Amino acid sequence: MNELQATSDSEEPTRAGSLPARFLLDGIVRPLRRFPLALFPTFMLGVFFVVPFCIMVVISFWHRIESKTYEPGFEFTHYERFFSPLFTSHLWVSVQFSVLASIFCLLVAVPFTYFISRFRRRPQVFSLVFILCVLSLSEVIIAYSLSVALGRPAGITNVLVWVGLMEQPQSLFPGYFATLFGLSYFNIPFAVLVLYPACTRLDRELTEAAQTLGATPVRSFFSIVLPLLEHTILAAFILLFVFTMGAYVTPTWLGRPEDTMMAQLITDQALQRGNFPFAAALAFFFMTVTLVLSLTTVWLRRGDQVGRA
Amino acid sequence: MNGLELHDITKRFGAVTAVTDINLTIPQGRFISFLGPSGCGKTTLLRLIAGLEVPTTGNILLDGEDMTPRPTHQRNIGMVFQSLALFPHLSVGENITYALKIRGMDRGARRRKADELLDLVRLPGVADRNIRQLSGGQRQRVAIARALALEPKLFLLDEPLSALDAKLREEMQVELRMLQERLGITTIIVTHDQREAMTMSDEVVVMSTARIQQVGPPLEIYRNPATAFVAEFIGTSNLVAARQAGGTRVEIAGTMFDTAGLPDGLKPDDAVVVSIRPEDVHVFPESSQGPNRLPGQVTFVRDVGASVETFVDCDGLQIVAMATPKDRPDVRKGDRVRVELPAESCIVVKA
Amino acid sequence: MIVRLAKGAFLTIFFGMFTVPLVIVAGISLNEKKYMFFPPQGLSLRWYPEVFEKSSWFDALTNSVVVALCAGAIAVAIALPTAYFLWRHGVIYAKALFAIGLVPFALPPVITALGMLIFWSSFGYVGRIENIILGHGVFLVTLPLVMISLGLESIDDELLEAARTMGADSRRIFTSVVLPMILPYMIAGYAFVLVLSMNEYIIAFFLGQHATITLPVKVLASLRSGYTPVIASVSVMFILLAVVVFGLIARFGDLPKLLGAWTPKE
């Protein structure tokens, strides 16, 4: 009897209603009836995330009067400012840092994650805990420690002098290299966590088979492991790129004025100059770029993504 | 000498001993099986020969040369893994010629060789296909072709047929054997299926709990098991506890029995195990007389068409007798009988 | 073998490189005088108890802790129904909700920070600790969301079917089968949010303004103006806390599995 009821429930006579009405009913109301708890995340994410964004997008078109005030309007002045040399140079700097930092980070993280995924249980868990603890260091602390490590009094240049490669200790920060190094450094633990699941899925027998066929361990890494990790490495690159684009603390502390990145720009406009509309426009543009790249990542990883079809 | 030699091989993983005291000689061109239950060390032994594990002690010689310090990729072996381990991102042909590409063979020659090998394993024309498009049996053949590409001296297979269904398995058993005979290559197969080992091999190495229990041709192992484990593992066998009673006699449950022979090094009254195949046991009526007989009661009769099994309880001892329908004993459940264990069929092993 | 040596060297350099911040920070925290020297000049542990005495540091610490604990709860509370909804009813609504849950973390935090600031500013309700809590709770949803989804995916369908044949309804199945199996993922997700929230800078900076200051904000501000090794001692304690938390998870849970490792069924 229950079975009959169930079928009749899902085969309600299709109303001759308009498309939006049917969408509302089938798409939203019915699932909610089956799982009313979904209202809570919908509310939270909707009110505290989606709404702020919409407001931000709207405001990016508003007119700015003076510091910290703005009135409703509709103008593209803020978007027009994008094409000033100042803005484009900072955008270029951000992209440059993000691409390079992601590449350097992966050059280190891919072999490392591969190695630890082959460890025995104890060393593997230790390595994971180690990485997690590094992750738990705030960006501020890491940036500061790196500035000490790259500075003159106690930095690495002293070691180079001692070895004889340099004449005098120098401060490497603030600087281009320091910023790049700091960004790459900070990204590595994240990259390891992203690459880890895929590395553990590698069938160990594949590299063993390669070895029985005469491949040295190095060769089997490049001809077997890397091709199989290709998808994940690409997805990791995009994730790191987006992540680095939003960096604030590291470039603030380790960078010179010419190394300023987008997040600093937006913060400056919003908090220092109170030009919310322009900051909003910058943020919206920034967000569009990064969203497009995020979606590409999701699309690429759809093979091993969690959501069920 | 030509062939594979293992001297005093031991392998420990931390506190666990995987194999110990392994001494084995395999002449060139033979087909050998490593047979045993899960965890007996047979796969570890194979991996030691392949170089995928390094022995804790001992060494391995191939054609007189010490192979032990050599890493896997410098050993001249071809291996088929249990999971087949075919490279998913390469085509069938690319899989097969992977080793040849490493050696620097040019594309045209590789292509010809791939076709040649596919013909050898009777799977022509699939060189450009993706691995995923093949069936289990076809992948099996690709794995074999790949392993043989370099014409290695050793051909190692780890439970290669376990993933196949019964009919295909039997076909492949014959094919593998024929392939091996044609190429004359020294082959070692790891399996837990004794019928497989008995069917395909020149010699069987029976292993249990990290040691070799017995080495010999299949029939020899079947007829003359050296230990209780081998007797029980190979075929079905009745195992009866007994005591040595001098000469070739043992005492079972108070009765004296003559046997085919006792193992060396026994002291008087030692505990031993008598192994006798069900097909050698005869069932007689209770009133019958004769040597080597035990009284008992029939508990179960199983008629499976091609054979009849009679289960007899002899005062606590369970004996199974098997007969063809022609010679079936005329008994039913509950009847009192006498079971005869003919002397020449009683193999005695140490307890 | 050269390869083995290179691998060993690589790993040593790697682990060494990431131990450097800890060494530097620990060293600075031991300075006797109120200077951030490295190597430390004079050794003293006086900066450790100071965190709990000096009011502004202690306030920042409590703010961070409160924010982290609450934001973690909110994040998991949002993540759990979202992940469950998608797993159980894979309708478009559920997929959209899940996608929205992935977005915050995928965007540079400055954008979320700005959006929320504008939002709260329009109500004139800024600088409160609730702002930061909600900000973090929503921003950090992605991590527990992904982890709980991972946990749900790892549940063998046959377990659910078996429970159903024994007469359990959806709610019973959830409480008796699903919940116990994803609990480790929930706890791990919560732990991650805790750690990330404690270290988060930008959203806390935007939303807290000058009224509510969290620890990372105070640290950066202090680095720019007044130097004191208290910063370093706080960081050392953080690291120790992280070691304890993750060590416990590793000890009592299956850390590789929680991080997505594939355990082959033998």
Please specify the SSE layout and strand pairing.
The complex is a heterotrimer of chains A (309), B (351) and C (266).
Chain A: H1 2-10, H2 19-34, H3 39-59, E1 63-66, E2 69-71, H4 77-80, H5 85-117, H6 121-135, H7 139-149, H8 156-163, H9 176-200, H10 204-212, H11 217-245, H12 249-254, H13 262-272, H14 276-300
Helix pairs in contact in A: 5-9, 5-11, 6-9, 9-11, 10-11, 11-14, 13-14
Chain B: E1 3-13, E2 16-27, E3 31-35, H1 42-50, E4 57-62, E5 65-66, E6 77-80, H2 92-96, H3 98-102, H4 107-120, H5 136-148, E7 154-158, H6 166-183, E8 186-191, H7 194-200, E9 203-208, E10 211-216, H8 218-223, H9 228-233, E11 238-244, E12 249-252, E13 255-258, E14 271-276, E15 282-285, E16 293-303, E17 308-314, E18 317-323, E19 336-340, E20 347-350
Helix pairs in contact in B: 4-5
Chain C: H1 2-29, H2 47-53, H3 55-88, H4 92-106, H5 109-121, H6 129-139, H7 142-153, H8 157-165, H9 170-199, H10 202-208, H11 215-224, H12 230-252, H13 255-258
Q: Which two chains touch over the largest interface?
A: A-C, 93 and 96 residues
What is the name of the CATH architecture of the largest domain in chain C?
Orthogonal Bundle
Strand content of chain C: under 5%
Most strands sheet of chain C: none
Uncertain parts of chain A: 1-13, 304-309
Shape of chain A: flat
> Roughly how many Å is the radius of gyration of chain A?
26 Å
Question: So what's the oligomer here?
Answer: heterotrimer
* Order of strands, widest sheet of chain A: 1-2
Order of helices and strands of chain C: HHHHHHHHHHHHH
**Distance between the ends of chain C:** 33 Å
- Roughly how many Å apart are the termini of chain A? 30 Å
